[in-house]
Design a protein that fits this description.
The chain has twelve helices and eleven strands. It is an alpha/beta fold. α4 packs parallel to α7, α8 (261-271) crosses α9 (278-295) and α9 (278-295) packs across α12. Bound molecules: nicotinamide-adenine-dinucleotide and glycine (GLY).
């Protein structure tokens, strides 16, 4: 799929900012900044008598009261439901908790759902919104770096199946995304690093300049410097909006956002959901996908090493678990990009561009052997 050129990064800003995602009548804004959990931020959204905040047992005690106060001017009744925390609960029983709450409260088809949490809460709330009464509006309020730079944007919603990650879901766009950087203050460092994996991803696949910026500013990001976080979230959202605006339902280009995910999803499913964080598995998967790109002759070894070094600098794991090559391959065959059992990998080359392709089995096995222990 031919793509339009990526717009250049917008100028750094000290105040709050926004990125728009252009999808015709499903277009929406991503608001990025501090102090966003206030009533004004939520003005102009679909009107409804009831609203449901979907969160989890970790994020709820931290932010539900604040979000509720911001929503009270807009809805007569603001309900909430706290799901169990963890990737292992991105499943049918937890999803059903949302439906049960909605039905117990006789929530009608105008009810707005608010996803308050990381990617797990966001993906599940979006899927619940897509299904409840065949579709109710929802708003993303992402509270992890990963969710602010990736999962809350673009309308992919899903739950896991024991046999494969994110296998049951729908494309369903939110009405608005509110990235309040203040919420990152309480995020554990391990989760920040997991989010950085999805930030780094955008460089090799779409924007070599952004990769250089990340190399120059990684120490500041690790120290949570606000201006650096602001730029990282904004540029990530700009790149994601550029991709999704051209290929909402992943008929081609959007697959590049899965750089590192084919190997990464195999790690997550193979280890049991929750053992490795999604971002950790993606970081390690990117090291593997980058090596595969080099072995296929698409980038040189120095470029592959450059990407690996940046991932390593964050403290993310760069060696995968030793599931054995057969198990990796078995798990990768249930990846959504696979066609007729043939695994498709996102490969980089030249730097700043990516494509999807199959690879010889022996080469894939070499990559797995080189990057697992
Ligand atoms: P997560 O949702 O599990 O959140 C990580 C942890 O941080 C959780 O324990 C959570 O309770 C906690 N947390 C969240 N916000 C916090 C805060 N502000 N302060 C303190 N603790 C906080 O994980 P994640 O990394 O945000 O998301 C991973 C999920 O996103 C995976 O399921 C992945 O498949 C999905 N994902 C989806 C897309 C998409 O396009 N839909 C893209 C990337 C990832
Ligand atoms: N995170 C992959 C996508 O949104 O397509």
């Amino acid at each position: 799929m031919a793509s339009t050129p990526l717009p250049p990064a917008s100028a750094p800003t000290s105040g709050n900012t926004q990125v728009s995602i252009d999808l015709g009548d499903r277009s929406y804004d991503i608001l990025i900044g501090g102090g966003l959990l206030v009533a004004d931020t939520f003005a102009g959204l679909p009107k409804s008598s009831k609203a449901l905040i979907v969160t989890n047992t970790t994020v709820g005690p931290l932010y539900t009261a604040k979000l509720r106060a911001a929503l009270v001017p807009h809805h007569k009744t603001v309900l909430d439901v706290e799901l169990p925390d963890g990737e292992q609960y991105k499943d049918w029983p937890a999803l059903n908790q949302i439906f049960t709450r909605l039905l117990e409260e006789a929530a009608d088809r105008k009810t707005v759902l608010y996803a308050l949490g990381g990617g797990v809460v966001g993906d599940m709330t979006g899927f619940a919104a897509a299904c409840y009464m065949r579709g109710v509006p929802f708003v993303q309020v992402p509270t992890t770096l990963l969710a602010q730079v990736d999962s809350s944007v673009g309308g992919k919603t899903a739950i896991n199946h024991p046999a494969g990650k994110n296998m049951i879901g729908a494309f369903y766009q939110p009405q608005r995304v509110i990235c309040d950087l203040d919420t990152l203050d309480t995020l554990p460092q391990r989760e920040l690093l997991a989010g950085l994996a999805e930030v780094i991803k955008y460089g090799p696949i779409a924007d070599a300049e952004f990769l250089s910026w990340l190399e120059a500013n990684m120490d500041k990001l690790l120290a949570r410097d606000r201006a650096s976080l602001m730029h990282a979230v904004k540029r990530s959202c700009e790149i994601k909006a550029w991709v999704v605006g051209q290929d909402e339902k992943e008929s081609g280009l959007r697959a590049i956002l899965n750089y590192g995910h084919t190997f990464g999803h195999a790690i997550e499913a193979g280890m049991g959901y929750g053992a490795w964080l999604h971002g950790e598995a993606v970081g390690c998967g990117m090291v593997m996908a980058t090596d595969l790109s080099a072995r296929l002759g698409l980038i040189d070894k120095a470029t592959a090493q450059r990407i690996r070094t940046l991932i390593e600098r964050t403290g993310l794991p760069v060696k995968g678990p030793d599931l054995g090559p057969d198990r990796y391959i078995e798990l990768m065959q249930v990846d959504k990009k696979a066609e007729g059992g043939e695994i498709k990998f996102v490969v980089v080359g030249p730097l700043g561009q990516a494509t999807t392709r199959s690879a010889p089995d022996a080469l894939v096995r070499d990559v797995i052997a080189a990057h697992t222990r």
